[in-house]
Amino acid sequence: MPQRRSLPALSPVATMAIVLALSCVASSRACDIPVFQYALENWTSDAYEVIVFHRGALSAPQREALGLLREGAEAAQGNLRVRAVDLAAGPDEAMLRRFAEQSGAKLPWMAAYYPPVKRIAQPAWTGPLTSANARGLLDSPLRRQIATDLMQRTTASWVLLESGDRGKDNAAAALLERELARLEKTLKLPVVATWGGAPPPEPPPIKFTIHRLSREAAAEQMLVSMLLHTEDDLATKFAREPLVFPIYGRGLVLYALAGPGINERTITQAAEFVTGPCSCEVKDSNPGTDMLIALDWDTQVAQTAVENLPPPAGMAGFQDRAAEAERRLAEADAIREREASGPSQARRAAASGGAGTAPAPSSARTSAPEPFGPPAPEGSAAAVPQTLTEPADRERALDQQAQVMAATVDDTDDPGGLAQAVGAIALIAALVTTALALLRRRRQAAGDEEHERVAT
Q1: Where exactly are the structural domains of the chain?
Q2: What's the DSSP call for residue 232?
Q3: Looking at the whole model, is its pTM more than 0.70?
């Protein structure tokens, strides 16, 4: 019998791949809640980083401005981090490069950067360190209004950033108002059968708000800069075009609709996304760049739907069942070789004219080995009893075992669906392992027979 290797443990990469696959299965079952509602209740805002460059001690007004930023970071609950860099204290190379990138910087200087996860190199805003700039960076009237809209379950808040050309701006505003009014009446929210095994919450009605924003508004200069720099070419290529930004969740800017791109099709696509089913529960897998809003969303937003899925306890069970399948394959091989050894020795003895060993008695040959294939899962029907001395028997056993697996998966009473998915994948993996081992053994058996034929 060829040397057998023990079943290897799952590597971290393989384990992660299976977990990600299971998360997709779970998401397809559990995340039919609309995107805007799931994002509002579950997606934590990513953190901006404000770097304050200075050289030596700060004056009292400058310390006050820095204190305002740090207080805002506490209020923002993770949406903001503040770092003071003293250029006279030998900062690291990365901070020196950051400061060298500043154009027209006069110390002390502030630079606000987008969350690193978005990989946007250009700052969201830069300017002198003053208390007025610190307050403007942390808060503005329009951001406060957008946050209020979203906390009141507005589906999305649309910001029309005006170009300064009254004709273009009014045309874009009229089109946006007309299309959003139509979509409020015609869009349908996904029908949620269950959410974590519990009755679904009553979804809020579809409602859109529109805010017009002048690029010259003094109180909103930081917001204008944040919006314009979410994409590389908005501030340059589309400097003379109106821009529309759909905002949802906890202040996520979906993307910009620019100039001629503000049309019925693109408005509908954006609205369909925010009202459609949340296809992936992971925030980074969905489009959008957070605005800087110094607000503790967790204390302001009530949870209307909480996941209640069972833990993925099937991974260890999969490894146990696969190991058990390997053990049974080894025993079946041993039984087959013992049964084959008698007739093989008799054929060799007859060819050489000697007295060979008699074949094993019939009673010994018909003693039933343990069932072939992976063991039946806990709570399922009993494993299929088989005397598996021939390949055809093994193939029939595989078919019957697959039927047992399917019945087990169909009969589960797990309402959440994750345990069912884990069990199904584990059983299928064990079945594939068994089938591959069977194929390997059939090839080995054919080789043994050919070797015996040549020897005789």
Answers
A1: 12-17+311-455, 34-300
A2: T
A3: no
